[in-house]
């Protein structure tokens, strides 16, 4: 069965059918879902979802686009949330320069990225890292934080195979989702070819980035079979091998055993 390492089922796009969708997932091809926070509110919602569904675990953290809500009181709030037994990671945290060009705001993102990495270290939880158009600064913050001592995953990977290998040398996994099925995703396809399967996690980023043949629609964890098939084709291995190895990878990183 598939381990879904990054979804946002607290998103309003699931308000009308969340219960039916999640109930159906765990009777099908998915064994475990990490529901990832991106703000204080969504982090709380992720914990609430994890309390309701045995197969759902939470990550708590603040996305770089929302670091304006962070202060030390908020970090204390994240720490309190992370004490919940079903919180498996700190995330998603990191840098996003695609949406933010202001150098002052970028500095603030770097500060709170580093602070949340330190929180992950203190709590001995893995980090789920978001990085978009910010490769050099992401690497620098991680090096300054001694990321090799803090396990984690670079989610929705969008950089070069060479950079993927640098993250892997730090001990990180590479999150691969629906984009790998797109015809124009040559860089990501080449990354998958060049890195070990033992360093890949399957993810959707649901409700975003649905794979072919559902591109442009709302994404969900059941669509990960298309991602696994593409990875299998690129690696020259069976679908079952991709499913098994990526599940073992995720269980190892998050310290979990599949529920089903």
In short:
The protein has 260 residues and is α/β, with parallel strands linked by helices.
Structure overview:
It is built from 9 helices and 8 strands. By secondary structure, the chain is an alpha/beta fold. The protein starts with a strand and ends in a 6-residue tail after the last helix.
Q: Which structural class is indicated by helix and strand composition?
A: alpha/beta
How many strand units?
8
Strand content: 15-25%
Could you estimate the helical fraction of the residues in percent?
40-55%
First-last Cα distance: 8 Å
- Which parts are unreliable, with pLDDT below 50 for 5 consecutive residues or more? none
Secondary-structure blueprint:
Blueprint lengths: L1 E6 L10 H8 L4 E7 L3 H13 L3 E5 L11 H11 L4 E10 L6 H21 L3 E6 L2 H10 L7 E3 L6 H9 L3 E4 L9 H9 L5 E3 L21 H12 L3 H16 L6
Parallel strand pairs: 1-2, 2-3, 3-4, 4-5, 5-6, 6-7, 7-8
Question: Which descriptors apply to this entry?
Answer:
alpha/beta; 9 helices
């Amino acid at each position: 069965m598939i381990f879904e390492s990054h979804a946002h089922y607290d998103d309003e796009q699931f308000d009308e059918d969340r219960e039916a969708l999640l109930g159906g997932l765990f009777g099908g091809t998915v064994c475990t879902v990490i529901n990832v926070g991106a703000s204080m509110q969504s982090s709380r919602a992720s914990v609430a979802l994890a309390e309701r569904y045995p197969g759902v675990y939470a990550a708590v953290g603040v996305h770089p686009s929302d670091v304006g809500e962070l202060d030390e009181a908020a970090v204390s709030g994240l720490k309190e949330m992370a004490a919940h037994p079903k919180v498996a990671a700190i995330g998603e945290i990191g840098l996003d320069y695609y949406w933010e060009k202001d150098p002052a705001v970028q500095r603030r993102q770097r500060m709170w990225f580093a602070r949340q990495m330190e929180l992950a270290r203190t709590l001995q939880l893995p980090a789920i890292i978001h990085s978009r158009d910010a490769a050099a600064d992401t690497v620098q913050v991680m090096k300054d934080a001694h990321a090799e001592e803090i396990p984690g995953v670079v989610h929705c990977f969008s950089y070069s195979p060479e950079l993927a290998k640098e993250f892997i040398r730090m001990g990180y996994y590479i999150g691969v989702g629906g984009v790998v099925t797109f015809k124009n995703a040559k860089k990501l396809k080449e990354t998958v070819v060049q890195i070990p399967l033992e360093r890949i996690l399957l993810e959707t980023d649901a409700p975003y980035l649905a794979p072919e043949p559902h591109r442009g629609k709302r994404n969900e964890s059941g669509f990960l079979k298309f991602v696994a098939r593409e990875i299998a084709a690129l690696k020259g291995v069976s679908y079952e091998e991709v499913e098994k190895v990526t599940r073992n990878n995720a269980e190892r990183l998050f310290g979990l055993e599949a529920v089903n």
